[in-house]
Design a protein that fits this description.
The protein is of the alpha+beta class and 433 residues long. It has 15 helices and 21 strands. The longest helix is centred in the middle third of the chain and has 16 residues.
């Protein structure tokens, strides 16, 4: 199903190897304002390609890219490879270190209706357009999206374990995560990766906006009616692949902030009565534990008070969405249907365009936004189960936008991908039987 290729990666020149931590950056949608200011101060940080400054970000990224290539700030591999990428991390209170194992390669940019790459959540249109504009201008990918495949036998893991013993980089990132990158150039091993992945569907875990931008770009290039090549650069997309059946795949919640609604606490509580059981809390710090064990339970935070709200179980039958039962029962579907649409009055199909809803991964920051008055109120969510993500994807339906937060995030700057034809070209037939 999934056609992948090794990647002729661009990487920072070897003279920057000792300072590579200073050149990497978080993904574009998780960079805080304070982080951005510090990163922009370094003229060679990868943020200048992933989140370029200026009124015309695409043009700014092109100028940076031209300069970096000319000055040999970055250089391209002579031959393509499979990049093995391991992330070592611990959660607070956990003694055991986790390791998310995966590899970076190129995947054909399949449209959603081809059912090879499956999405699990909706996108936000403005973010897709921003990513498309930069891709169109640069023909360059500053960070991989994240895809999941299912392999109960873990066939590729021994090859990755061997490769990671000889790393290119071994650094600590902004999350406190140990990031290790290695490369496989052996053609026979690369062929094994291509063979295993050829039977897989890919579930898009992170990077829906970048991937959707890549789909749009591919369609634009095809519409130009240029003679097709066997290996068209615009057909491919850089992706980080991890096994969905790994024990170290973690999903964290993403909370919701609401602004400028013109509804006071009393009015919202009154509207909740039709759908939710409401319990006032003594301490906002209790929320995460209290909602954890219950389906369809959320925290609701106002400047002075906090509540646990849980959908009245019988109400689930009132959901008139034309989606499978398993999608209706997902926490995020319940939240967006019963709270955002029924209580707050924003229809499901309008929510992804709403400027009144924002998304925050940190519970501490979420509560601080409300207490400071920068947000009217917030809804605290719990993590989506991996089994739910897989079930929703395979059903052909999606969850609301920003439903998942796969942890840890990949880094921008360890390597880059080009879809400029002359930089992409290689006799890839060598990797096929």
């Amino acid at each position: 199903m999934a056609e992948i290729l090794p990647i002729k990666a661009w990487r920072y020149h070897g003279r920057f190897a000792e300072n590579i931590e200073e050149l990497t950056s978080p993904l574009f949608d998780v960079v805080s304002h304070k982080q951005r200011q510090a990163l922009y101060a370094n003229p060679y940080n990868s943020i200048h390609l992933s989140v370029p400054l200026g009124e015309n970000p695409g043009a700014a990224a092109v100028e940076t890219l031209v300069d970096w290539k000319a000055e040999k700030i970055i250089k391209q591999d002579a031959v393509p490879g499979i990049y093995v990428y391991y992330q070592y991390f611990r959660f607070p209170g956990e003694e055991q270190e986790s390791c998310r194992k995966g590899f970076i390669a190129q995947i054909k940019t399949y449209d959603w209706d081809e059912r090879v790459v499956l999405r699990h959540e909706n996108t936000i249109s403005k973010a897709v357009n921003d990513r498309l504009d930069i891709l169109r201008a640069t023909e360059f990918q500053p960070s991989p999206t994240h895809g999941l495949y299912e392999d109960p036998l873990h066939e590729l893991e021994p090859y990755m374990d061997d490769a990671i013993l000889d790393p290119i980089f071994d650094i600590e990132d902004y999350q406190g995560v140990r990031e290790v990158l290695a490369v496989i150039h052996d053609a026979s091993l690369i062929r094994k990766f291509l063979e295993v992945m050829a039977s897989k569907q890919i579930i898009l875990a992170d990077g829906h906006h970048r991937y959707e931008g890549a789909i749009a770009y591919r369609k634009e290039k095809k519409s130009e009616h240029a003679p097709p090549l066997r290996w068209n650069a615009y057909d491919y997309h850089m992706m980080y692949f991890t096994n969905a059946l790994s024990k170290d795949l973690r999903i964290l919640p993403t909370h919701r902030l609401f602004r400028d609604f013109g509804l006071d606490e009393g009015e919202i509580l009154k509207r909740l009565e039709a759908f939710f059981i409401v319990k006032k809390l003594n301490d906002v710090s209790e929320i995460s534990e209290l909602i954890l064990q219950k389906d369809w339970a959320f925290g609701l935070v106002f400047p002075e008070n906090a509540y646990k709200i849980r959908l009245i179980p019988e109400c689930i039958e009132q959901m008139d969405m034309q989606v499978p039962h398993l999608v209706k029962r997902v926490d995020m579907t319940v939240l967006h249907y019963f709270f955002v649409e029924k209580v707050l009055g924003i229809p499901m199909d309008a929510q992804r365009f709403s400027e009144k809803i924002e998304y925050e991964r940190s519970l501490m920051k979420c509560v601080a936004q409300v207490e400071s008055g920068r947000a009217d109120f917030a809804v605290v969510a719990k993590e989506v189960k991996m089994s739910e993500v897989l079930d929703v994807c395979k059903s052909g339906y999606t969850m609301p936008q920003k439903s998942t937060n796969f942890y840890p995030k990949t880094l921008s700057g360890l390597l880059f991908g080009s879809i400029k034809q002359e930089e992409f070209d290689f006799p890839y037939e060598a990797f096929f039987p």
